[in-house]
Design goal:
By secondary structure, the protein is an alpha+beta fold. Helix content is 50%, strand content 21%.
Length: 486
Amino acid sequence: MYISLLARVTSAQSGRGWRAVLVALALTAAAAAIRTAMEPFAPGTVPFATFFVSTLLAAILGGALAGAVATIAGALFSWFWLLPPSGSFGLTPTSIVNEVLFIVSSATIVATATLLRAALRRAATAEQTLGARLAELQALMDLAPVAIWFARAPDVREVTRNRFAAELMRAPIGTGTPLAPASGGAGLANVELRRNGRRVPPDEMPLQRAMRGEESHNEEYEMVFADGEAIALLSNARPVRDARGNILGAVSASLNITALKATERALREAVAHRELLQREADHRIKNSLQLVAGVLRLQRGRLAEPAAALALDEAVSRVNAVAEAHGALQRSPDLRNADAGAMVAKLCRLADRLNPDVTVSCSWTGDTHLEVDRAIPLGLVVSELLTNALCHAYPPGQAGVVQVRVAGPMAEVLEVEVRDDGIGMPAPGDRPGSLGGDLVRTLSARIGAAVETESTPGQGATVRLRMARSPAPAEDTEAQPEPAAS
């Protein structure tokens, strides 16, 4: 403020030469009058005593031109009236020396005053710029819905806070008492800061830690008032340093996330409720499908026709496959992925009863989780391959082993293999069309699984499925090879 006022005063005559000359002449006249009045009381006083002051004032107020005019006017007046011989422009060696010294000194004064004027202008400009920036910062602090605290003293006994911080803490705006000073003393009695349910000691508060040079980012706190109301805060703090890295103060900013935390809690409760309902639905679906499978098995026990009994066995296997897929979804921790290895193992145990002479073994290694939308079709494919091997790969009464392997050798790949040691598959030209083969081909294409079939007459057959974890659905179902019945 004072710098700007001085800059305006010293630049009032800038650009107006005649005014600068008038100012210089007026100041010189005043200096001459004072010097003349001093002569009877202090004879022998330095002739130019008052003219140094008038020259300095003229140069400051009017610039270099006014200073030059004041120097010349003071030199002429002193030469004529004050230097011997008085009342004339005669010169003596002493007069010449005095005049030269006065002019040189005045020139130095004028140059210094000119530099001072320029420095004042630059300082005034910087002051105006700083004031504008401070006004912008103050407007931002008042408008931003963020609580901001500033501290300068190491003990953090007083802080400056913005309007939002004051309203948040129910405290006066401006400089005031912090939550609690770092070195003890009186803090705000109506509020307490907590983190993870524990009261935060004064020295561990964000602003105090920042005064020690620590930075904190996205730390969650709870501000609890005496009446029991609690506000959730997301806080950041950092020290304020000068160009050399010395700590000048600290700043802390906190965002009120009470509404956000309440929304998060509501969403978590809604998701948990939805998961509970979905698990219950999957449980009921599984139970219903198992009931259907039980009814079909009862019906199958009353059939004497082998073809009809085989058809019911295949239907029971398909129902069990869907039921176990829902069971795997019920056991899934996130309802998005099911453990394909555990699901296939359960299918193997259920399919083992189809042929009492054949043993079914199952193993799985690595990560065998698969997204739910693809786990159900995969269960149906494996069920068809198991049923195919148990019902068609072995003549009646012949013992054997069917091996099922599920592996996740890589994070992006899942492999399933069904191997039997039966009679092998017939030649391609002798393979009749079947519902099971159509299901395997169609469902494999839907889940993006590549199917490889190996068969040696009299030595069994092997069918491998290899799929990416999340492939795009295949469009051309005819491109998949068909695993015909053994």
